[in-house]
Every structure is written in structure tokens, then in C-alpha cells.
Fold FAD-binding domain-containing protein.
Amino acid sequence: MSFYERPEHEPCVFYNSWKTDSSNNAVLLLLFTATSTIGGEMAVDKKDALTAIISGGSLSGLMVAIVLKRLGFRVTVFERSTTVQSQGAGIVLGKWSTAFFQEFDKTKTEIALYYTLRANYDGFIKEGYINDISAAAVKDDRAEYFMGKTVVSHSYDSHLKAVNVTVRNGDGSEDHFVADLFVCAEGGSSSSREIYFPGLPRTYAGYLAFRGLVPEKDLEPDTAKTLIHSLSRSFSTNLAVPGPNGATTVGNRHMNFVWYNTIPEGAVLDKVLTDINGKRRPFSVSAGYMPQSVVEEEIHPRAFAKLSPQCLEVVMKTKHPFVQVVTDVIASSAVFHDGHVILVGDALSGARPHTTASTNQAADHALRLFLTLKTNTCDLSGLKAEWEPGSLQYSKYLWEIGAAIGNLSQFGDHPMNVDRQMPHRALEEWMKVGEPK
Ligand SMILES: Cc1cc2nc3c(=O)[nH]c(=O)nc-3n(C[C@H](O)[C@H](O)[C@H](O)COP(=O)(O)OP(=O)(O)OC[C@H]3O[C@@H](n4cnc5c(N)ncnc54)[C@H](O)[C@@H]3O)c2cc1C
């Protein structure tokens, strides 16, 4: 059987179905052929496929959504954001991400991560990013994606062997759903994870990343070509990323910078993480929300003191920088309630960014899920023994490497300015540990 053929299924439990309006915003239509009440929840007729609700419609949520859809599940993704925001991130596709796209990407066009995933999941086509493909090629009524809907709670009903999920809409109203499988793909700050690991800390690693984007055309002609790393207990990574409407041609791209700075907990960190509304954010301040005083008093002076002329130019020409703190959080298990609830991606383990491999992690979790379920799609109980160990091992492996690189860079005692190969050698040492199979 190829990856793209749909397997046959045993009749399975409940399903809810939704329709969207033409702008893909949520217009919720619950389709019932018969209704009954189960514990105050709405229950619907039995249909021929398992159902999955995915909380979080970013990278890992979408990768798992694609896998489940191809396995024949009816899948619904709830994403709390109301818009797709460019994180300005240059995401490096690693081994498993590449493998994922090789197996599951039907568009076979240039990969624009989020939009390629959406095209393959629910046939959503974003002009400029995904071209030359008809939505009909991938459109499927078993895949729905809703923005502006936050999963606020879930609970397992052991009698029904199903998960009750409550979703809050933008207007504050709530809807209740039932699914066979609940996938928590909520990222590092996951609230659903809290149910299983109350109080699990997401700890500050002691440093943060100032980040931003500059149109390439705003830079001096040679800057993009000659950008170099500047290493003095901080490091800056600069890379070209697609510009407006996915443009990848020279001169039309954006220059993206990620610049790590050690800032101990205290007044300066509080200042950097306080947005224009005076709110102290826990982990990040988005582009456009950083006060100009922070830019002028905390970012620019550091840039002048530490960065090479090319990196400095990028930082100084960034109109709306943003900041993300680097944190550590890793859960010790990923499967709950006999396989009816799973944690994936950063919700399971928010590794530090230095491995540039968290998308790999999302792909690893999704690919393993496919391999585990493809022989018996309806047997979720096998996930604990067959999917969880490898997923946890890979996440732990990434987390350890990321922490080692970050600690070496920010806190290590090493002559960076003398021996520029040292971080590479350190990375190679860590890589000798070998990737888990
Ligand atoms: C500085 C930096 C650089 C990075 N560079 C790279 C790189 O080069 N390569 C790489 O592979 N990775 C990189 N990463 C990491 C990568 O961006 C993340 O690992 C990846 O986005 C994780 O995907 P995720 O889907 O698990 O979580 P997220 O992307 O965090 O997505 C979680 C989603 O869930 C939604 N959500 C949360 N709670 C709810 C709820 N209750 N209901 C509904 N929706 C909810 C959120 O709105 C969000 O959209 C970098 C990260 C940082 C900080």
C-alpha cells in the first residue's frame, strides 16, 4: 500500500463535522443525523472513521493532521490565533522534516512550510506560496481547520472511550465535541499539558533572542552576501527568508536575524519583556508590540557593542524587532488514557532552538504515528508501547543537544574569538551520541 492510499477502517465511534465559509473562517455547523445527550455533551451518529481533534494548528499540529487524515481519520484542527502570523523564522528543514514532505507532500511545489502543510491537509491554497496546484487535488471533507478557537478543556470518558473537548469561540461562547483521539499540539506553553503535569515548569534558560526582519533591498549591497557570525557570549544568525507573498528572488527576500543575548532574571529582563501596553509577557513580545525605548536602550547599544558591521546594519534597519526567551520544558510521557490523548511537538518537549531541529521533532512524532497506526488505525491503545518510547527518546535527545550548545555559547568558558571552529567541534561531539532509531 502506498502512503497515499486510504486504508479500510473498522466502524468507529463519534464524529462531528463542520463547514467553513469561503474565507475559511469558522462558521460552525454541527451536522447531526441523530443526537443524544451524553453527560451534557452533544453526541452524534456512528460513522465509518475514527475522529481526531487537534489543539494547535502550527507545524506539529498540521503534520499530525495530515498523517491522521491519510490514515482515514476525520480530523478537525482548532487554532486559537485568528490570523496566520509570520514568525519571521528561517526554519531549517532537517532529515525527518524532509522525509515527511517527501512522503506526504502532494503539491510537489517549493516548500512554504505552513502553507504547504495546509495545502496537503485541507486544500487551503495561499496564492504566492503554493502555486500551480488545484485545491481539488488535496481537498477532502474529512479535514477541517478553524482559526480563532481555543481548546479550553478536555476530559476522557472511560465508559465511551472518547475524549470530550470544549472549545471557546472568539465571542466567548463555547462548543463541546467528542473525539476518539485528542492531540495536544499547543507548543511550549501548552495548557492541556498542565492536566497531566501540573506545575511542570517552563524555565528560563538565562538568555533570549532578539529577532527581526529587514527587506533585503534596504541593506547595503554586500551585506547579505557577507554576513558573518559574531561570537562574544552572544551569537547572531542571519539568513535570507521569503519576502512578501513568498518571494525568493534576490532583492525581494527578507533578511532574518536571530541574536542571542544573556540577560539574567531581574529588572532588565522585565523591561525587555514588557510590551507597549505595559504588560509583562512571560515568553515573548511580538513584532510591533515592543516599546521604542526597549529598542533604543536595550537592543541598539548591545548591537553596537557586540555585532559585526553587517549584523549591526541588519539590527539597526529592523523596524519592528521582537523578542523570544529561550526556555526548557520537557514532559516525561506523551500518551494518556489508553492512547486517546497524546502530546506532540513542542507541547511534549520545547527544545532550545540551537539544533534548528524542532520541525524535525514535529516530523519525527508524526512519521512515527503513521508507522504505528498504519497497520491498525483503530487501535489507539498501541500508542503507549509503540509510539511513545521513540518519540520521547528523540525529544530528549534534541533537548540535550540544544541545551549543550546554548550553554556553551552563552555561558561556556571558551576562546570564541580565537577558535571559531570550537562550537562546530562541540556539536560534532554531541552528534556522536547518534540519532535514536
Ligand atoms: C528563535 C527560534 C528559532 C527557531 N528556529 C528553528 C529552525 O531553524 N528549525 C526548526 O525546526 N525549528 C526552529 N524553531 C522552533 C520551531 O519554531 C518550533 O519548534 C515549532 O514551531 C514547534 O511547532 P509546534 O507546532 O509544536 O508548536 P508551536 O509552533 O508553538 O504551535 C503551537 C500552536 O498551538 C496554538 N495553541 C496553543 N494553545 C492552544 C489552545 N489551547 N487551543 C488552540 N490552539 C492553541 C498556538 O497558537 C500555536 O499556533 C525555532 C524557535 C525559536 C524560538
Residues 55-61, 78-81, 89, 91-92, 150-151, 185-187, 191, 209, 258, 324, 345-347, 353, 356-360, 362 surround flavin-adenine dinucleotide (CB under 6 Å). The chain has two domains: 12-199+331-397, 203-326. The radius of gyration is 22 Å. Residues 1-47, 228-232 have pLDDT under 50 and may be disordered.
